[in-house]
Amino acid sequence: MAGQSRKWMILVATIWIQAFTGTNFDFSSYSSEIKKVLGVSQVQLNYLAVASDMGKVLGWSSGLALMYFPLWVVLFMAAFMGLFGYGIQWLVIRNALTLLYIMVFFLCLLAGCSICWFNTVCFVLCIKNFAANRALALSLTVSYNGLSAALYVLANDAINASSSSLYILLNSVIPLIVSIATLIPIICQPSVNPLPPETVDNDSILFLLLNVLAILIGVYLFICGPNTLDSTTARLLLAGAIFLLVFPLCVFGVVYARHWFHLTINSSFDLRASSFVLVDDDELELHKRLVSHEASFNYGNGSLSEVGSEYQKVSQKCIDKDSARCCENVIRKGKLIILGEEHLAQVILAILDFWLYYITYFCGGTIGLVYSNNLG
What we know:
Mean pLDDT: 75
Oligomer: single chain
Order of helices and strands: HHHHHHHHHHHHHHHHHH
Low-confidence stretches: 266-279, 293-315, 317-334
Largest sheet: none
């Protein structure tokens, strides 16, 4: 039971990280200050906006770091990359430091790369701790990344609404503070064990509640954020937003209450019948057979050769007669195993799904964000 509680605490920590590390969304809030201080043209400013988001091109380096360092070390490496990238830019805006345009360009790249490192940490946490419901966990936590701009606007207005340079200072400091706040749950991760079907169903109910809460937070920030009039109002609204972000901790109470309820009261209601589950019976059976091997694998310290051997070991287990039917439903030509196993780079590059996702992400989010920053 303690392991179940720790896993939900990790999900809340992941939500906090995502909510406060989308720092590239507020570039337009301080871009005028950068343009004025550096004395650059609008085209050159656009290049800085591109660099701020295209730093994610170097995001593959976070995967290499996870091969040699624990997860919490990678988290703090990302935090210090942002602290350095945004912090130096803040000194430039405040005229405390003079840098060439090309140096500011690389600082924007570094700051953008830190965002991808944070995303990698969050993805690994969700995949490792929610093996049967990783799709729900990933979609939920990633959705909070879009709230960063609204949260930073409220924070800026609550401190000093007239200062545009304050945005970039908040970009450098807040992710580090959030990393410190989430350190203990990340270090104290529960062991990975196969889950019974009733636990998977109960988790789906909790995910439904958390998705409803995410919608409420989004509506709250959308309605209240643009209407900030003074610092007092902004502080109240910011306090309300922080309360809503802390509120998912009540999930622990729900977990314990359900456990007590099933132990002490014989309920005639079948909650599983009303739950929404994105895992079918075959996938759940495969999960029960194969996920136990993850407990012996360390995401922070495993080498590439160990990853390959683990992959071969799991594939070999799927060849026996009892597992043949499950594996036929899971392993397709040109696709990956659904359990989120690690794969060699040459395997990834040869799969069509990877390139479809890459092109969609590049042509959608990346270019679109640059255009929106330019308009801002």
